[in-house]
Amino acid sequence: SSSSGDEALRDKRARILSRGLPKQKPIEGVKQVVVVASGKGGVGKSTTAVNIALALAANDSTKEVGLLDADVYGPSIPKMMNLKGSPELTPKNLMRPLKNYGIACMSMGFLIEETAPVVWRGLMVMSAVEKLLRQVDWGQLDYLVIDMPPGTGDVQLSVSQNIPIAGAVIVSTPQDVALLDARKGAEMFRKVHVPVLGLVQNMSVFQCPKCKHKTHIFGADGVRDLAETLGLDILGDIPLHISIRETCDSGQPVVISQPQSDAAKAYLKIAMEISRRLPVPPA
């Protein structure tokens, strides 16, 4: 009958598709992977990833946290985490992450000159990402935070399909053009069956340091509206504050250098929301 023929065709198609997908393999020693992503560049994703990693460690001193910079073309973790130099190799020929503020860090920025542009085609980028994922000795980590490149391209798909991800965090400003891309990012993770833990509204409001007047430079509550549309949670709001930019530029992120500030407290709250939403890790 035609229905049984259709079913056989569907089964065959499913078998072919499953053969084509890479098998997800956990990163040795890493209990849970959290990816921080954005559809658009320039929305403060790396700053958010750095401060989230530090906040996860600050919220629970028993947890070991790592930070992987998967943005091959524009690695910014070395500067933000005040790290320089090349990783040492273990006897098994694995790279040892560089460490600062208690966070184990790995980045393409450790492997190339600071001012050298990465002029690579897609296959070379994918090979580099594979090395950063598989050829690093992370030791034992409770959380590995991955700072993803902006967009929904090869790197995002490869990371999502190669390793089990406990959850994704989408960062966006409330601006309409950023929200369009943030939505695409959230939909992409849903398509590859990565749970989206929630959205972070970054640069949500600017408060004048002199008169204390608040201005919504990028619009108000756009990310909140998007979260509602997508049926997702808002993990928190980060203000547009000069100290956040200055501390990251100087390699002393605000969670570490100004832990009592409102900005640091916002990141600590977001980290708490993330850990609350993560599944119970394997023993």
Automatic annotation (TrEMBL):
Obligatory cofactor(s) = [4Fe-4S] cluster
What SUPFAM superfamilies does this protein's entry cite?
P-loop containing nucleoside triphosphate hydrolases
Keywords in alphabetical order, please.
4Fe-4S, ATP-binding, Iron, Iron-sulfur, Metal-binding, Mitochondrion, Nucleotide-binding, Transit peptide
Task: Classify the source by domain of life.
Answer: Eukaryota
Broad class of where this protein is predominantly found:
mitochondrion
Q: Which GO terms describe its cellular component?
A: mitochondrial matrix
Q: Where in the cell is it found?
A: Mitochondrion
GO BP terms, alphabetized: iron-sulfur cluster assembly; mitochondrial respiratory chain complex I assembly
User: Which Gene Ontology terms cover its molecular function?
Assistant: 4 iron, 4 sulfur cluster binding; ATP binding; ATP-dependent FeS chaperone activity; metal ion binding
| Cross-referenced InterPro entries | Mrp-like_CS (IPR000808), Mrp/NBP35_ATP-bd (IPR019591), NUBPL-like (IPR044304), P-loop_NTPase (IPR027417), YlxH/NBP35 (IPR033756)
User: Per its UniProt record, what Pfam families does this chain match?
Assistant: ParA
Q: Which Gene3D superfamilies match?
A: P-loop containing nucleotide triphosphate hydrolases (3.40.50.300)
Which HAMAP family does this UniProt record tie to the protein? Mrp_NBP35
Q: Give the protein's function.
A: Iron-sulfur cluster transfer protein involved in the assembly of the mitochondrial membrane respiratory chain NADH dehydrogenase (Complex I). May deliver one or more Fe-S clusters to complex I subunits.
Similarity comment: Belongs to the Mrp/NBP35 ATP-binding proteins family.
Name the UniProt record assigns to this protein: Iron-sulfur cluster transfer protein NUBPL
Report the gene name: Nubpl
